[in-house]
Amino acid sequence: MFLGSCQGLLTDLNEIQRLSDVDLGNTPEGYDKMRADYGVFFRSGFELSDDRSIVKWVWKGLHEGADLSLRSTAPMLCME
């Protein structure tokens, strides 16, 4: 369980982006489709091709979640 602030998470994610040689910050392939309709995306058979793609997806999801949480003044909730 993560216990922390979204401001702190965004600060850490921005530092990771600055130090990383992975192209973080750009929307990874397939991410927009997943956000538009998770059910269709899930059934599409999409697979991540390599470790760098996985890092991009995780970074993007955490960054987007923390940003949305701050903009909506609601806690960030991660579900299993």
Describe the structure.
The chain has four helices and no strands. By secondary structure, the protein is mainly α. It has one domain. The N and C termini lie close together (11 Å). 5% of the residues are buried. The model has no long low-confidence stretch (mean pLDDT 89).
Spans of at least 5 consecutive residues whose pLDDT stays below 50 are: none
Which structural class do the helices and strands define? mainly alpha
Mean pLDDT: 89
Which word captures the global form?
globular
If you compute it from the alpha carbons, what radius of gyration comes out, rounded to the nearest whole angstrom? 13 Å
Counted beta strands: 0
Helical region count? 4
The proportion of residues in beta strands is under 5%
Please summarize what this structure is:
With 80 residues, this protein is mainly alpha-helical. Helix content is 60%, strand content 0%.
Features:
single chain; 4 helices; globular; 80 residues; mainly alpha
Topology:
Layout: H1 6-19, H2 31-36, H3 38-43, H4 51-72
